Every structure is written in C-alpha cells, then in structure tokens.
Amino acid sequence: MNEKSEKANSRKASQASALVSHMDIDESELNDPFQALMEKAGNHGRYQTLYNFLFVGGLAFSGAMIYMNIILALNIPDHWCTVSGRENTNFTLEEWRDITLPKQADNRGRETFSNCEVFQMNFTEIQDWSTWNTSLRTNQTQACQNGWSYDKTWYESTIPTDHNWVCAKDLFVTNVFVVGRVTEVAGSFILGQMGDSYGRRLVYYISVVFCSLGRIGSIMCTSSYTWFLIMSGIVGLTVNSLFQSPQIIGMEISREEDRSRIAFFQSCGWSIGTTFMPLLYWWLGHWDSFMWLTSVPTATVLIFSKYVIESPRWLISKRRFRDAIVQLRKIAKINGRRFDVTEKELAEIYSQDKQDVTYGIASLFAGWRLARNTTIMGFSWCVVAVSYFTLVLFSSRMAGNPFLNFLYQSIVEIPAYIVGRYLGDTYGRRITNSVSFLVSFITCVPIIVYATDERHEYLMIYLATFIKFLNALTFFTVNLQCLEIYPTCMRQTGVALGTILANAIGVLAPYLVYLGTTVNIRAPYYILGTLFLLGGIGALFLPETLHKKLPDTMEEAGNFGRNDKFFSLPKLPPAPVPNQSLSAHPELTKLSQTEVSISP
C-alpha cells in the first residue's frame, strides 16, 4: 500500500514539475527545505503571533514616535520681532505690528509682516500717539534687537521657540534633519552589514539601546546646539535597523503567505505611533514633556528580551546548525510542538549547500540581474523617502492646525496599508508599486496649478494627504519587495542599502521644505512629480515576488525573476503534492511524520 502511494505521489510530483516548467517558473523559487523545518517547529503559531505583536508591531509603534517626535518638537510657529512700547498705547497686537514691522512677500507671494526685521527707530520715545502717523516713521530697517514673540495658538513651547532658532539661526532646524539623514546613511551601512555578518539579534539590541539613549540625550542637551546635533546623530545611526532587524526575523520564521501580514503589522504599528503623537503634543503643549513620553517606551521593550531570538534561517545560511536548532526549539516550545531534529540531521539536509562568500554591499551588484534589481529598488527607496519626509515636514508648516495636518497625513497610512496589502497579494507587488507612483505623479499636477491661490488651501491639503496615502501604499510595497528579492545571506544588507540611498537623497527633503516655505510653495511638487514618474516606470522592471519563496543563496537571487514575463500578472503555483517539497532533500522525509504536541 505504501509503495503504491509513493508511486502515485512520485507521478503527481512529476506532473507538478512539468506544470511548473510549463508556467515558466524556476523550481528554486518554490522549493524551500527551511519551510519543512519551520512547519515542524510551527511557522504560524503562538510564537509568531507574540513576536509580530511585540517586536514587529509594538516596536514599530514606539520606534515611530522616537523617530518622528523631533519633527513636531522642532516646529517653528509664526514669529516676529519684539518691540517695546505697546504697553503705553491702546493698540491691538495687529495694529502694533503694522506700525513697527516692515512687510515682505511670503512663499505664496503674499505680503506679510517680516519675521526678522523691525523699523529702525525707538518707539518708546514717542510721547503723543494721537499726532503720530506712519509718515513720521523711517523706512530703514534693522534686525530684531529685543528677541522675538511667538504665536502660541498651537504650541506653548517648541525647541526653536525656547532657544530662538530663527532668522540668523533659521537653518539650525534644517541642519538637524540633514545630520539625521547623513547619520542614517552611515548607520545603515554599518549595521546593515553587521546584521548579515554577526546576526539580526545583536543589531536589534544595539539599535534599541543607542536609539533610546540618543533621543533622551538630545532632550537633555538642547542648550548646547553641538551636543544636540551629536545626540540626534546617534538616533540616526541606529533608527533604521530598529525596524529592519525584527521584521526580517519575523519574515524568516513565518509562512510565505504571512509575509505581507508581517509587513502590515509593522506598517500599522508605525502609523498608529505617528497618529498618536500629534494628539499627545496638542494635549501637552510643551515639547519637553512630549519628547520624554514619546522616547521612553522604546527602551521598555528590553523587558521582553527572553523572547528575542536569532533568525534560524540566517544561522543555517552561516552553517551554524547547533545554534539554529536551539532557536528552532525555543520557537517550538512556545508553539506547543516538539522539534527533535539533530544537528547531524540538519547538516545532512543542507550538505549540498555551500556557504556563500560575500563582500558586503558589493555582492548586491554581482551579476546583471541582481545589479539591476538592486539599482531599481534603491531608486524606489529614494523616491519614497524624499517624498515621505518632504510631505511630513511640509505638513507641519502648512496653514491651519499643525497637529491635525500631521494627524491627517498619518491616519491615511493605515487604509493605505490595507489597500496595499490587498493589491499586492492580488495583482502582485510590481504592478501595485508602479501604479501608485504614477497616480502620485498625476496628483502633483493640480497642486502645482493651484498652490499659490489661497482660496484652494483646503484642496491643497486634501491632495497632499492623498499623495501621502499613495506614498504609504508605495512604502508598504517597496519594503515588502526589498525583503523578498534579496537572499538570506544579504537580506539585511540589501534593505540597508535601500535605506542608505533613501537617506542620501532624503538629505534634500529639509531643503525642499525650506524652498517651499520661503521661496515658492510649488517648487517641491515639481521635483516630487518628476521623481514619481521615473519611479513608476522603473518599478515595472522589477521581478514579481508574490507566491515565491525567499531566496537563500546568491545564485537564487541572481536568477530571481529570470522567467518572468513583462506583460503578466502573478499566478498561484501548482498545488503542492505530498512530499514533493522534500524530493530534493530526502533527509527531510522524517519531518513529514505526525507531530507530537507538548502538553502545556
């Protein structure tokens, strides 16, 4: 009976193999012996649920706040020169400003009061205001002599208002963001390669500790601009790997069909954090209490360190089989399963696989196909990053309630992730990514046309929010593609390279905002529109990753998408035949036996 069953399965496997060949699918993109190991330990159990909620979603929530809180704390509200003498008059604030301050054109071409200059005369010396008029006023101006007054409609205090980072120091804020982008590039380069060389878990601990200390240090060092920059730079060094390491581990220990779910967990955690943040600041009013409350939670995840694991998939790629079994048994124990594979058996399973020799980031350009994928992914990251930070920074400078502006652009991300997950799992990552970029390009056109007309202020907010929606959708898809295209031995390096390129170009975002807020409000959208168009075209040339296993070796990554057709949508692979996935690895047959659960 068993012999007949084996022959039937063998015949079905041969038929399935022929079907795979007919579908132009590379069998290496489907055959994944590691999934058989994870099925024995549990690849969709209690441990994965705990890990995804706590370290993927939870850390994304707290990490989003520690990353983005500085944007709100560095907001510069409307300000003007403080001019003594009004206390001796009956003038309203608006009338006093009209008398004492010169006018200038703002970024929309409107005439407004100067932020940094005052008429050069002593208004306290005027004794009889009933006979005084503006014809007696000098036209010469000078810089503010008595400090600045700030509009406290929305903010009781921000870091710039407490330390007067305005006018001659108006680039102080921009430079903080630039330093953040530069250090993110350096940190991604170092920690990304460390993650693939020394493990995801080590990089996770480094990121949590230094990110927390850096932001707490920056709160305590605002009186010294140099130290504030240094502490902000420490956050930048480690903040990207704070998100990358847990997500990569989560994907490497889960089923193929759960990969978009894991990306969804992290994306939602991020959006909930950035949605909660402006409401908290609006309620508190003061930057210092706001910064403390949004920075400390990241450090608290260290309490749950006993649940942090090293990726067994990465350990196997490094041929550290004993360590991999320790991690797999830890997963199996929490999942209520027994994992009894020995080190010798695991070594036999992977006896034909050789450890790849890699050369850091340079290995991502080994071969034409991998180099092309890496280049397009890098450019996609650049477009997503520069548009994201430009829109977020710009939202805090737009007219109206800055907290609601920030909130609107954050809250639209959650439905964007829902739509992105559905489209990505239905029509594929490639088409979803490209269409989102192209629709963003089209949306920039009416913004450019109507941005200077104050009557269309709310239309501009709605359109900018819609672009933010599309940006979140694209981020979700690009992030997922990036994790699925690169091999296990280079996965964190590949994600880090995208981050490096994104932040290298992201350095431009603060200057785009500066250009839009001080020169021409349309300027950022000319640039963003061009980037969206190029990103949409480039994304079409990426391979489809839906329904394909994570590549483990450089060879698999170099062949990834080799048989993809340009004008096609992803198809479900043929239904698996019993033991078909084990045919290339006979040693795995033992794993197909009935599991024995461990009593809780």
TrEMBL record:
<feature type="transmembrane region" description="Helical">
    <location>
        <begin position="406"/>
        <end position="423"/>
    </location>
</feature>
<feature type="transmembrane region" description="Helical">
    <location>
        <begin position="53"/>
        <end position="76"/>
    </location>
</feature>
<feature type="transmembrane region" description="Helical">
    <location>
        <begin position="263"/>
        <end position="284"/>
    </location>
</feature>
<keyword id="KW-0812">Transmembrane</keyword>
<dbReference type="GO" id="GO:0016020">
    <property type="term" value="C:membrane"/>
</dbReference>
<feature type="transmembrane region" description="Helical">
    <location>
        <begin position="225"/>
        <end position="243"/>
    </location>
</feature>
<dbReference type="InterPro" id="IPR005828">
    <property type="entry name" value="MFS_sugar_transport-like"/>
</dbReference>
<feature type="transmembrane region" description="Helical">
    <location>
        <begin position="376"/>
        <end position="394"/>
    </location>
</feature>
<dbReference type="Pfam" id="PF00083">
    <property type="entry name" value="Sugar_tr"/>
</dbReference>
<feature type="transmembrane region" description="Helical">
    <location>
        <begin position="435"/>
        <end position="452"/>
    </location>
</feature>
<feature type="transmembrane region" description="Helical">
    <location>
        <begin position="495"/>
        <end position="517"/>
    </location>
</feature>
<dbReference type="GO" id="GO:0022857">
    <property type="term" value="F:transmembrane transporter activity"/>
</dbReference>
<protein>
    <submittedName>
        <fullName>Carcinine transporter</fullName>
    </submittedName>
</protein>
<feature type="transmembrane region" description="Helical">
    <location>
        <begin position="458"/>
        <end position="483"/>
    </location>
</feature>
<keyword id="KW-1133">Transmembrane helix</keyword>
<dbReference type="InterPro" id="IPR036259">
    <property type="entry name" value="MFS_trans_sf"/>
</dbReference>
<feature type="transmembrane region" description="Helical">
    <location>
        <begin position="202"/>
        <end position="219"/>
    </location>
</feature>
<feature type="transmembrane region" description="Helical">
    <location>
        <begin position="290"/>
        <end position="309"/>
    </location>
</feature>
<keyword id="KW-0472">Membrane</keyword>
<feature type="transmembrane region" description="Helical">
    <location>
        <begin position="523"/>
        <end position="542"/>
    </location>
</feature>
